[in-house]
């Protein structure tokens, strides 16, 4: 029989089973307060350090090939004060999107040829990372999805990005070219710089 000590701080039912723990043991540990259930089939040790982004961690454990995107990514990169109602993730077009009820999740389908542009990681808990788009890709995605997510949000995120130290407007424009929104992004960048 396996023990909790053999498992990382955050783990799935499948990895626990592979380590020799039966699902009944997991629910007993949860009921006794030794485990927290972050999402269906995703557990975290109660004595583990508190995660910075517990919902992102839960979703990434359920959908390891997905990438945190759009408003969720903008929140992590401090490009917005808006708190998304749902964790927004991207999957490659052609992949089966995950069905996650909790935490509430919205899935976007991005093209396979540009899916990895701007892909990076963020530490969601000590020693545990999740896949996320970098600030430049996030700004471009908000601009290209501004009809769905709101133009004020997209322009505000772009403005915040461009006014921060270390901004790379050239990289924003390069991503905009790759993602087919160079015209609107260039116009918005020029308007912010002219302010």
How do the helices and strands line up, and which of them pair or pack?
Layout: E1 10-12, H1 13-18, H2 23-31, E2 35-39, E3 42-45, H3 54-62, E4 67-68, H4 70-76, E5 87-92, E6 105-110, E7 119-125, E8 128-133, H5 135-144, H6 146-149, H7 151-162, H8 169-178, H9 182-194
Parallel strand pairs: 5-6
Antiparallel strand pairs: 1-3, 2-3, 4-5, 7-8
Helix pairs in contact: 4-5, 5-7, 5-8, 7-9, 8-9
Mean pLDDT: 91
Structural class: alpha+beta
How many β strands by DSSP?
A: 8
**What's the helix count?**
9
What features would you highlight for this structure?
alpha+beta, 9 helices, elongated, 195 residues, 41% helix, 2 domains, three-stranded mixed β-sheet
Explain this structure:
There is one protein chain. With 195 residues, the protein is of the alpha+beta class. The chain is elongated and about 60 Å long. The longest helix is centred in the last third of the chain and has 13 residues. The protein is 41% helix and 20% strand. The strands form 3 sheets. A 3-stranded antiparallel beta sheet has the order 1-3-2. The protein has a 3-stranded mixed beta sheet with strand order 4-5-6. It has a two-stranded antiparallel ribbon with strand order 7-8. The N and C termini lie far apart (65 Å). Helix 5 crosses helix 8 and helix 7 packs across helix 9. It holds the Pfam family AbiEi_4.
């Amino acid at each position: 029989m396996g023990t909790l000590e053999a498992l990382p701080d955050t783990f799935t039912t499948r990895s626990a089973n592979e380590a020799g723990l039966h699902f009944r043991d997991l629910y007993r540990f949860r009921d006794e307060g030794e485990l927290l259930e972050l999402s269906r089939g995703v557990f975290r040790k109660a004595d583990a350090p508190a995660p910075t982004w517990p919902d992102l961690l839960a979703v990434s454990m359920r959908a390891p090939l997905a990438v945190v995107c759009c408003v969720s990514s903008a929140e992590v990169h401090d490009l917005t004060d808006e708190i998304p109602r749902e964790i927004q993730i991207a999957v490659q077009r052609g992949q089966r999107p995950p069905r996650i009820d909790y935490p509430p999740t919205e899935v976007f389908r991005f093209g396979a040829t540009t899916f990895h542009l701007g892909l990076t990681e963020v530490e969601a808990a000590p020693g545990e990372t999740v896949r996320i788009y970098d600030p430049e890709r996030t700004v471009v995605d908000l601009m290209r999805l501004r009809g769905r997510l709101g133009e004020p949000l997209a322009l505000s995120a772009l403005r915040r990005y461009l006014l921060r130290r270390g901004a790379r407007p050239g990289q924003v424009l390069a991503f905009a070219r790759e993602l087919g929104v160079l015209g609107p992004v260039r116009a918005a960048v020029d308007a912010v710089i002219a302010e």
